[in-house]
Write a structure and sequence with these properties.
285 residues, globular, Rossmann fold, binds pantoate, 9 helices
C-alpha cells in the first residue's frame, strides 16, 4: 500500500492506474477504522482495480465545541488495517495544505441537509459536502463507498453527486453491528465501560419499531413516540427520532417499506446515531 499526503502524488497514482485501464474505488474516512470501514474497503477491492482510502479528520464538519480535538486518531493501526483489507493507496492530506488560509469556498446541499443531524449540528453537512467535493475532484473515482449508518450523509452525498454531475457510482454498505446490536462507530471508543451496555438500547428500540411495522403498524408518529419513550426509559438523552424518506430526508406520516427510522442519542457525553429501514414481512431476510 502506498501512502500520500500531497494531492499531486495522489493524482499521479490515480492517473497511472487509469493508463492501465483500472477502475478506481474510493472509501473516504476520518480514520479510527473499524469493521464497518473494512467491509467497505473489501467491497471496493472486489469491485475496482485501484482502491483509494482517505483518512482526514475534517475540521470543517465539526462545529465549535464539538469533539474535533478528541476525535480518535490511530494512524499506525489504521495503516495496518487498510493494508490487510487490500487498499492500494492511503491518502492522508495535511489539514493546512487542504484548507489553506485563504480557503473560502463551501458546498451546501439544501433540503436533505436540514433536518435530523443537520438541525442538531448546523454546518455539519456543509463541511461534509465541501470536503467530499474536494476529495472527489482529487481522487476522481468511479465508485465511492459509504456506510448506511450515516443515513443522512448518504442522502447528502447522493444529491451532491447528482447535482454536480460527478461521474461516480455511489455504493452504500450495510451497517456493521456488535453482537448486542450497537452499530460500529469510531465514537464508540468514547463510551465508558459502565455506559456501554446501555448503548445497545438504541438499536434495540429501533429494531422493536421495525418489528412493529412488520406486524402492521403504519403510524410513523406512534413509532417515533414509542421509540423515544423506550430510549428515555433506558436513560439515553434523545436528540431526535424521525421517520423519514431516506432519499429526501423528509418526515413522513406512514411507515411503509423503504421508509427509515433514524435516531440520535447522547450517552455519557457521546453522541450515537443509528437507523433502521422498514421492510415488509415478505421481504424480510
Ligand atoms: O463519514 C465520515 O467519516 C466523514 O463524514 C467523511 C465522509 C469521511 C467526510 O469527512
Amino acid at each position: 500500500m502506498r501512502t500520500f499526503s500531497a494531492s499531486d502524488e495522489l493524482r499521479a497514482a490515480v492517473a497511472q492506474a487509469r493508463r492501465q485501464s483500472l477502475s478506481v474505488g474510493f472509501v473516504p474516512t476520518m480514520g479510527a477504522l473499524h469493521a464497518g470501514h473494512v467491509s467497505l474497503v473489501r467491497r471496493a477491492r472486489e469491485e475496482c482495480g485501484l482502491v483509494v482510502v482517505s483518512i482526514f479528520v475534517n475540521p470543517m464538519q465539526f462545529a465549535p465545541g464539538e469533539d474535533l480535538a478528541r476525535y480518535p486518531r490511530k494512524p499506525e493501526a489504521d495503516a495496518e488495517v487498510l493494508a490487510s483489507a487490500g487498499a492500494d493507496v492511503l491518502y492522508s492530506p495535511d489539514a493546512v495544505r487542504f484548507y489553506p488560509a485563504a480557503f473560502s469556498t463551501s458546498v451546501d446541499v439544501a433540503v436533505v441537509s436540514e433536518g435530523g443531524e443537520g438541525a442538531v449540528r448546523p454546518g455539519h453537512f456543509r463541511g461534509v459536502a465541501t470536503v467530499l467535493t474536494k476529495l472527489f475532484l482529487q481522487v476522481a473515482p468511479d465508485a465511492a463507498y459509504f456506510g448506511r449508518k450515516d443515513l443522512q450523509q448518504v442522502a447528502v452525498v447522493r444529491r451532491l453527486i447528482e447535482d454536480l454531475d460527478f461521474p461516480i457510482r455511489l455504493v452504500v454498505g450495510d451497517t456493521v453491528r456488535e453482537p448486542d446490536g450497537l452499530a460500529l462507530s469510531s465514537r464508540n471508543a468514547f463510551l465508558p465501560a459502565d455506559a456501554r451496555p446501555r448503548a445497545a438500547a438504541l438499536s434495540r428500540a429501533l429494531f422493536a419499531a421495525r418489528d412493529r411495522a412488520r406486524r402492521g403498524e403504519s403510524d410513523a408518529r406512534a413509532l417515533e413516540t414509542d421509540t423515544r419513550l423506550a430510549l428515555e426509559a433506558a436513560g439515553l438523552g434523545v436528540d431526535y427520532v424521525e421517520a423519514v424518506d431516506p432519499a429526501t430526508m423528509e418526515r413522513v406520516d406512514a411507515a411503509r417499506p423503504g421508509i427509515a427510522l433514524a435516531a440520535a442519542v447522547r450517552i455519557a457525553g457521546t453522541r450515537l446515531i443509528d437507523n433502521v429501514v422498514f421492510d415488509s414481512e415478505r421481504s424480510r431476510p
